Amino acid sequence: MKKSAVLDQDVISPDSTEAVAALREKHVLPLPGPMYAKPIQIVRGRGQFVFDEKGKKYLDGFAGVATVSIGHSHPHWLKKIKEQMDEYFHTTSLYLHPSLGLLAQRLVAMVKMANPMLEMCFFTNSGSEANELAALIAKNYTGSHEFVALQHSYHGRTLMAMALTGQSNWRHSTPYGQSVSFAKANYTYRGYKHKEALDDLNQVIRTSTSGRIAAFYAEPINGVGGVITPEPEYFPGAYDIIKKAGGLFIADEVQTGVYRTGREFLGIQKWRVKPDIVTMAKGLGNGYPVGCVITTREIGEAMKGKLHYNTFGGSPVQMAAVGAVLDVLEKEKLAENTHEVGTHFIAKLKKLESKNPHVGEVRGMGLMVGIELVKDKKSQEPASDIAVKVLDKTKDKGLLIGKGGLSGNILRIKPPLCWTKKDADFAADAIEESLSEI
Ligand SMILES: Cc1ncc(COP(=O)(O)O)c(C=O)c1O
Q: Is 21 inside a domain boundary?
């Protein structure tokens, strides 16, 4: 560990980026560490921009990992949160408060576009907790405890959510105590077309489960795994296979929800499949901690007579934050903006596939964009070293983006939904220049 002079003092007051990094290194588990070779501090955010301690402005292309949806410190969102804090900060679902039912009603009206039967919500603090609860509901409803998830998936960090995650870099050598089998993702760039992926799903159910499953978990477009975007045939085909095995279809909308993929509130709407359970988080709160499980009355009734509880889920301030996000999404027409800016951005980046020898594939929808980098297009060998360099170079040019994928070779751009076409052009140019400088 690097020693900072500041750390040798009794009273530590971080006075430089180095001291801030050293203090964190001393007292915080290194999971994960700062993103850049030379870490940066971000101390302020406004709209689609963030600022470091010296006032340097960056265009935010990662949004706290696809979380800041309506923009940093949006005034309407702050106002609603502060008003509720002044009135009544915390209560639990043990008492009635009008905000919980009203917000659930509002959210249900939006997810009904995906499945008109969805009508019951339960709020949590995070996406992991929402996925954990969705699994519990599926077990209670079906009487089965067997799950199928997809390779390259990411569903969170509670035990069940980790068990459902199909990436070695996110798995630990520990028995998760859950029955989860993994089917191949419809990852066309790596040769798995929908036909092969669906055959594999069938085979996995036949060979690795009892044949009757509790549920199939899927991200409509995978996030952490590198924006793997399926073909339109995949999810309808998967739905039929799952239903034949008696399973529920759980759409993990933690990243794809809240218009991230464009005009539809949920990513699964793109694939015309009616999910039995939807889990949401991230963009729903714009940074205020929230998660939510939404299901049908029939499935939700499986929890009747059982106890389940979440201290902060559904609190008045959480409801105020989510309500304000929904207000702004509508008022500022961010769904249409995401579609337009995202389509423009992806079209611009797509040109890199023929222009740059390391750009294997540009993919995604709306403002959920991935760029898979390879050493060369023939071998398709993942180029994680190039991804690291691009991240550093774009940062120097004033753009913050992320990376992911099993090999860390996929650039991920998931900005606040208030990006403009000018922002998209700036980001596309910064990425193109950075790649050509390497
Ligand atoms: C698809 C998906 N599901 C679940 C989660 C877990 O959410 P949280 O970090 O809020 O627990 C994440 C987080 O990145 C995610 O991307």
A: no
CATH number of 299's domain = 3.40.640.10
Give me 411's structure tokens.
């650039």
Residue 418 lies in a domain: no
pTM, rounded to two decimals: 0.96
126 lines ligand 1 (CB under 6 A): yes
Count of structural domains, the chain: 1
Domain that holds residue 225: 76-331
- In tens digits, the chain (438 residues) has pLDDT values of 344 444 444 455 677 899 999 999 999 998 887 789 889 999 999 999 999 999 999 999 999 999 999 999 999 999 999 999 999 999 888 899 999 999 999 999 999 999 999 999 999 999 999 999 999 999 999 999 999 999 999 999 999 999 999 999 999 999 999 999 999 999 999 999 999 999 999 999 999 999 999 999 999 999 999 999 999 999 999 999 999 999 999 999 999 999 999 999 999 999 999 999 999 999 999 999 999 999 999 999 999 999 999 999 999 999 999 999 999 999 999 999 999 999 999 999 999 999 999 999 999 999 999 999 999 999 999 999 999 999 999 999 999 999 999 999 999 999 999 999 999 999 999 999 999 999
Mutate to test the pocket of ligand 1, among 155, 222, 250, 261 (most ligand atoms within 8 A of CB): 155
Two tokens, residue 48: 């689609």
How much distance in Å is there from the Cα of 102 to the middle of ligand 1?
A: 25
- Token look-up 């028995």 returns 175
Tell me the C-alpha distance between 219 and 185, whole Å. 10
In a domain, 312, yes or no: yes
CA of 281 to the centre of ligand 1 (A): 7
**395-425 core/surface letters (b: 16 or more CB in 10 A; e: else):** bebebbbbbbbbbbbbbbbbbbbbbeeebbe
Q: Is the CB of 403 under 6 A from ligand 1?
A: no
Q: Is the CB of 156 under 6 A from ligand 1?
A: yes
Q: Cβ contacts of residue 148 below 8 Å, gap of 6+?
A: 180, 181, 182, 183, 201, 204, 205, 209, 213, 215, 216, 217, 242, 247
Please tell me whether the peptide bond between 357 and the residue prior to it is cis, using omega within 30 degrees of 0: no
Cα of 397 vs centre of ligand 1, distance in Å, is 29
Q: Is residue 60 part of a domain?
A: no
